[in-house]
Write a structure and sequence with these properties.
By secondary structure, this protein is mostly loops. It has a domain at 21-54. It is built from one helix and two strands. It has a two-stranded antiparallel ribbon. The longest helix is centred in the last third of the chain and has 10 residues, at 45-54. The chain is extended, with a radius of gyration of 15 Å. The N and C termini lie far apart (35 Å).
């Protein structure tokens, strides 16, 4: 699986809050399960975390764990 890395436009907006990503600490995320689609940009980890939580993107995507084990 390969992908091309490109610098986003200077006015690229955060996928969560709409702020300019380069005014903050930008993060680029790709879904590489299927052909490494277009990147999604976030202005910081707080926006990325909230975006993931609100959409339930981690539900069912973890190993099973039990405190008894």
């Amino acid at each position: 699986m390969s992908t091309t890395v490109e610098t986003p436009e200077p006015d690229e907006a955060c996928a969560y809050c709409g702020s300019r990503i380069f005014d903050h600490d930008p993060i680029c995320v790709r879904d590489c399960e299927e052909e490494c689609g277009s990147p999604t940009y976030f202005c910081n980890y707080a926006c990325l975390t909230t975006y993931v939580d609100e959409r339930g993107l981690t539900t069912g995507n973890a190993c099973e764990w039990s405190p008894e084990e």
